[in-house]
């Protein structure tokens, strides 16, 4: 039996937490901002003749008032290929990040995707951009699953939702800061078309950032050189509190298969998948949808800024609430889903003449990204065992890929400027989020009650050296 008493003071623990928050969290946030920015920059490039130069959009007719009716299927396919690449790369990257150093895998992948992003400027046809987006997605798949697991090495389960929220919210940060930056980059006039400098400059910035990750991103408390012996002891003791098993570089086949027999894998994956449909669609078609409301090209770019802000704010606020009050995560998933359902109904039934109301609907749809962020944190917090945790995390982002593939396909198959099928599909998916979250909440609450009845309150019987899964460890209690 391991001792229950702590050999450090609460103040020493708070000092370590502050150090981790100001050291590791900013590294994850900047990396995920770049990943989200680089992934979505193609949407901004559409405002600078990107689609026309690569022949990705065709005009198939006109509205009575002369507004062109466009077919954006090739553009949607190019967007989709990013997520196909992400899907193909997720499990190999998961294996590499467990087998080798997370910092080395993430920094190397970041360097390579920066190079691929720069190469986008050399694309001149549909085939070229499809291959380019495939490789970009494959390499970017290293980041999110690795960060989901990395958070569990440094913060307790009560702290994880907020820290995951910090880096996951950067999808909104990227959406907030990128439009005006992209507009400025698009004003570079020279021998190259206006959209090419955007990819060249952003790719170069990403390559430089990969060097920072290589030097400063840690792996786990046992191997980090940036901790004192006292800090390492506190970090390891905190890791033991999680009942989440050890940090292992050995692939555990039994844990891998147990993950796929666990309903929590499918619950988290489907929630992220279903929230990925509207968020993926808006990430790809956001500027086109807002443009279809009657706004100019510049206004369409500028108006994506507040959408990013509400995305980031909703994720961070949800993370703060879960830190302040326990067992609120599934309730918040349901609440954010309901808010966004209202947004889809506004865009579905709202009069096309009231563009302010339509934009407000898009604004509300953005809130559902917080549901996906909470599901990502639950995929780590409610799973124990290194291989099992890595597998569930990777599977969650497989759901993310599938959702982000479906979203642009639905919007691309629905003619602009109405995009009727896109908003209907988003409504159906968000209803599914509410149902799945409600059922999972009930099942986890019943499981915790069963464990309390069998074993009583947890008393700390297992050490960090035991790589037990949440199924094997009767002391493990699920967060809700």
UniProtKB/TrEMBL annotation:
One MF annotation (Gene Ontology) recorded for this entry: transmembrane transporter activity
Q: Which Gene3D superfamilies match?
A: MFS general substrate transporter like domains
- The record's principal subcellular location, in a coarse class, is membrane
**InterPro entries, per the entry:** MFS, MFS_dom, MFS_trans_sf
Q: Where does the record place it?
A: Membrane
* Name of the protein described by the UniProt record: Major facilitator superfamily (MFS) profile domain-containing protein
Residue intervals of the Major facilitator superfamily (MFS) profile domain: 24-449
For the keyword Transmembrane, the answer is yes
Record GO cellular component, one term: membrane
This protein's membrane topology, according to the annotation, is: Multi-pass membrane protein
Segments spanning the bilayer are 80-97, 109-128, 134-154, 166-185, 197-217, 270-295, 301-321, 330-351, 357-380, 392-411, 423-444
Which UniProt keywords are listed? Membrane, Transmembrane, Transmembrane helix, Transport
């Amino acid at each position: 039996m391991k001792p229950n008493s702590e050999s450090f003071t609460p103040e020493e623990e708070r000092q370590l937490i502050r150090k981790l928050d100001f050291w590791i969290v900013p590294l994850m946030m900047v990396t995920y901002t770049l990943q989200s920015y680089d992934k979505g920059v193609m949407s901004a490039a559409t405002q600078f003749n990107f689609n026309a130069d690569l022949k990705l959009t065709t005009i198939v007719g006109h509205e009575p008032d002369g507004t062109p009716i466009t077919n954006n299927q090739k553009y949607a396919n190019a967007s989709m290929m990013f997520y196909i690449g992400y899907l193909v790369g997720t499990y190999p990257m998961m294996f590499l990040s467990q087998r080798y150093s997370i910092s080395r895998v993430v920094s190397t992948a970041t360097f390579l995707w920066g190079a691929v992003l720069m190469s986008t400027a050399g694309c001149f046809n549909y085939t070229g951009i499809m291959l380019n987006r495939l490789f970009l997605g494959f390499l970017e798949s290293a980041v999110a699953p690795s960060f989901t697991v990395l958070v569990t090495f440094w913060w307790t389960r009560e702290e994880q939702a907020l820290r995951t929220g910090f880096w996951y919210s950067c999808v909104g940060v990227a959406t907030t800061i990128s439009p005006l930056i992209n507009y400025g980059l698009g004003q570079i006039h020279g021998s190259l078309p206006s959209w090419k400098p955007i990819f060249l400059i952003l790719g170069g910035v990403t390559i430089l950032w990969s060097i920072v990750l290589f030097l400063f991103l840690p792996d786990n408390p046992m191997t980090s050189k940036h901790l004192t012996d006292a800090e390492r002891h506190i970090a390891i003791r905190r890791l033991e509190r999680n009942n989440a098993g050890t940090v292992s570089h050995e692939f555990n086949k039994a844990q891998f298969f147990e993950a796929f027999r666990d309903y929590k894998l499918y619950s988290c994956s489907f929630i992220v998948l279903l929230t990925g449909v509207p968020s993926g669609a808006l990430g790809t078609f956001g500027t086109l949808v807002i443009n279809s409301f009657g706004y100019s090209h510049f206004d369409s770019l500028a108006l994506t800024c507040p959408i990013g802000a509400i995305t980031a704010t909703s994720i961070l606020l949800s993370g703060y609430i879960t830190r302040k009050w326990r067992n609120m995560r599934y309730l918040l998933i349901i609440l954010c889903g309901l808010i966004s359902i209202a947004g889809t109904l506004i865009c579905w039934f709202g009069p096309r003449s009231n563009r302010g109301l339509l934009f407000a609907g898009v604004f509300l749809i953005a809130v559902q990204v917080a549901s996906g962020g909470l599901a990502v944190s639950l995929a780590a917090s409610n799973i124990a065992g290194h291989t099992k945790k890595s597998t569930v995390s990777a599977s969650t982002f497989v759901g993310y890929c599938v959702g982000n593939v479906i979203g642009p396909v639905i919007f691309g198959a629905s003619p602009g400027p109405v995009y009727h099928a896109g908003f209907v599909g988003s409504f159906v998916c968000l209803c599914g989020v509410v149902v799945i979250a409600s059922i999972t909440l009930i099942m986890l609450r019943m499981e915790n009650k069963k464990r309390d009845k069998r074993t009583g309150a947890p008393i700390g019987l297992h050490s960090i050296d035991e790589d037990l899964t949440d199924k094997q460890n009767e002391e493990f209690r699920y967060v809700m």
